[in-house]
Amino acid sequence: MLEKKKILLIISGGIAIQKTPALIGLLKNGGASVTAIMTPAAQNFITADEIASLTGNKVHLDTFDKDGWMEHIDLSRKADLVLVAPATANLLAKMAHGLADDLASTTLLASDKPVMVCPAMNVEMWNAPATQRNIETLRGDGVLITGPAPGLLACGEFGMGRLTEPEDIFEAVQSFLKAPSPSGEGRGEGLRSISSLQTPHANPLPRERALAGLKAIVTSGPTHEAIDPVRFVSNRSSGKQGHAIAKALADLGAAVTLVTGPTSLPAPQGVQTIAIESAAEMLKSCKNSLPVDIAVCAAAVADWTPETYQSSKMKKTSDTAMTLSFRQNPDVLATLSAADKDRPRLVVGFAAETDDVVTNAQAKLVKKGCDWVVANSVSAANPVFGSDENQVYFVTSANTEEWPKASKDEIARKLGERIAQFFRDDAVKTAAE
Ligand code: CTP
Question: Of 64, 175, 211, 419, which has fewest CB within 10 angstroms of its CB?
Answer without folding.
Answer: 64
